[in-house]
Amino acid sequence: MNNPYAKYKSNSISTATPEELTLMLYNGAIKFCNQAAVALEKKDYMKSNKLIQRVQDIIREFQITLKPEYEISAQLNDMYDYIMRTLITANIRKDDKKLQEATDLIRNMRDTWKEAMKIARAEK
C-alpha cells in the first residue's frame, strides 16, 4: 500500500466512529448513483449495472444492521425497501428518472443523518 491516498482512506475508515462510517456509506451510495447515471447516459449498461449493484449492497447493509427493538427501524426498513425497488427498476429499465429518484432519497437520508450527527454532538 504505497499509494498515500489509499493509506489515508484506510486510516480514515479504521479510525471512524460508527456514525461516521454510516455517513461514508451514504456518501459512497450517492457517488455510485451519480457514476451510474453517467454510465446510463453513455449507454454503458454493464458499468451502470455494476454501480447500481454497489448501491444496492450498501442499502442492503443498512437493512441488515437495523435493530428491530427500535421503533424507527421498521420505518427505515420500509424506506430502504422502496429505494431497493426503485434501484432495481432503474437497472432493469435503464431508467435515469428512477435512478435519480433513488439518488434523491439516499441524499435526503444522508442529509438527515448529518443533521442528527450535529445535534448529537451539540448535546454532548
Give an account of the 3D structure.
By secondary structure, the protein is mostly helical. The chain has a single domain (18-123), classed as Four Helix Bundle (Hemerythrin (Met), subunit A) (Up-down Bundle), CATH 1.20.120. The protein is built from five helices and no strands. The chain has helices spanning 4-14, 18-41, 45-64, 71-93, 96-123. The protein is globular, with a radius of gyration of 16 Å.
Task: Summarize the entry for a quick read.
This protein is mainly alpha-helical and 124 residues long. The protein has five helices and no strands.
List keywords for this structure.
124 residues, mainly alpha, Four Helix Bundle (Hemerythrin (Met), subunit A), 5 helices, 85% helix
Q: Mind sketching the topology for me?
A:
Blueprint: H1 4-14, H2 18-41, H3 45-64, H4 71-93, H5 96-123
Helix pairs in contact: 2-3, 2-5, 3-4, 4-5
Shape: globular
Q: How large is the radius of gyration? A: 16 Å
Oligomer: single chain
**Number of E strands:** 0
> Would you identify the CATH H-level superfamily?
Flagellar protein FliS
Strand content: under 5%
- Termini gap: 37 Å
